[in-house]
Amino acid sequence: MEMQALPHGPLEGEARPPGDKSISHRALMLAALAVGENRIEGLLEGEDVLATAGALRALGVPLERRGPGAWTVHGVGVGGLAEPDTVLDLGNAGTGVRLLMGILAGHPFTSFLSGDASLRRRPMARVAEPLRAMGAAVLARSGDRLPAAITGTSRLLPITWRSKVASAQVKSAILLAGLHAPGETTVIEPLASRDHTERMLAGMGAVVRTAPAEGGGVAVTVVGQVELLPQSFTVPADPSSAAFPAVAAAARPGSRIRLLGVGLNPSRTGAYTTLSEMGARIEILERGLAGGEEVGTLLIEGAELAAVDVPAERAPSMIDEYPVLFVAAALARGRSRFRGLGELRVKESDRLAVMAEGLAASGVRCWIEGDDLWVEGGDRPAGGARIDARLDHRIAMSFLVLGGLAKQGVRVAGAETIATSFPGFADLMNGLGARIGTLPEEGLG
Ligand code: S3P
Fold first, then answer.
1. Would you say residue 444 lies in a domain?
2. Residue 160 confidence (pLDDT) above 80
């Protein structure tokens, strides 16, 4: 499907972005591991999360959808999943497959896992290696890529694992495996990544500790073999999805929008810190708590943005927002530098290369230096490009935001990938004044 974004004027109005993707995956999986009936409200019903729901169903977990975003999960308890009789297809979802591998490591049967062409290219060794160290057998293609088979064990060993990357998926996979092992399992990461798994596990009665690690980094420990209490989960709106309308409004003077119920967990808000440093006018109203997570309404007013230098240490707290922040930088006066972007190369696409290429095609001067990206911003970019989304929802949405702010608009081929994380993206944006539409099939060339 090809979409087009035409230049728009100032945005105004209010909207609630869809449920948080990270928390939605975790709510389904953790509910499955509790004993008894769990209820979830505000679940993201994007393709990624539905793939996780489908995999859990294939593993013998009864799940029901009661209404929009309202689900009931009958948890089968830690170690209670059943051998699936088919390949588990996690589609585009890195979080889905990696967290599930952690859970499957504690089950004494073999599961076969695969996904779409994007997921099959992504590195799984970062999860497979610690799970092997705990006693699971993982067989996969070269580089530990999918498809993979995992044979778990009911005698999983607790470990202490030092991860080279700050990754909540790696950390969560090991902690979820650790739930099935006796004693304490610890993950040390170089910088703290998002902590939804820890918060949710603690809320379900597990013992989870976070502390500075000896020799540097952050250590998270879980005590295994607990009974998890069933929950009522409330999923906040996704701050990563909110970043698309936020940038579209922040970079267009005269805009004034409110984004409702957005998750404001400090491990997720680096993009808003960065936008504020660029001179964006962002206020947080109606702060509250939902499901153990900070939430609030973001009031965003358009302004002339200025260039920014983003430190590498901020990467974990804005890892998914870089693509759309590069778009903000293209509209900001001066030369922006984003440091330490190595992890962007292994997302749904190589986001560093794909963004740099697409920005250049849209008339934005930018260049990669090692793991850093420089963006020369200023006047409205020319636009006029036709971008291939490469099975990457955030590439598609970032360039549709750019199209709205550019002189000429932008076309995005393969825009159906947006449904993985943000169903209703075009409607939400258009409700605020954007001009995003689907081009007829004949338009494909
Ligand atoms: C996620 C962690 C991040 C993020 C992804 C969701 C999660 O990935 O990019 O979209 O839900 O744990 P990494 O763990 O690879 O950094």
1. no
2. yes
